[in-house]
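Journal club prep — side note

Before the paper discussion, L.F. wants everyone to see what a predicted structure for a comparable chain looks like in token form. Sequence:
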Amino acid sequence: MTQRLDSYRANRPSIELLLRLDKRSDAYRLEHSLADLVRLRVSQVNGCPYCIDLHTARARRAGEMAGRIDMLPAWRESELYTDRERAALAWAEAVTRVAETGVPDDVWEAVRPLFSDRELTDLTLLISAINGLNRFGIAFRRSPE
């Protein structure tokens, strides 16, 4: 797969807008491990090789267990994730697939009691930022380094 365009070089200020949204997650009221799992799962759902590689490596460097990274595509069937993580992952998948799912009420009802208003807003912003970055990576065929 040949990279079509280096969007960072073509228009760095625009890409940095998305990167700032993602980087803002350091100020979110979300656990770093939860944010890492969400970033990785959204990238898996979207099929962005660059972002999957990047977020897998970052999660490992942050101390995430290899088994939890490896089992992420099957998180529903695994007991390795907390109820809060499961709710966040379901929310992340539904928001990522919004055109297909419309973000169902049952997903909302699962996430709502486990996250404050601020946390849900932060989580949804994080999901939106990663989806945007995935779209740049996929559209311009950015490959893992």
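L.F.'s comment for the group: The chain has a mean pLDDT of 91. Keep this in mind when we get to the figures.
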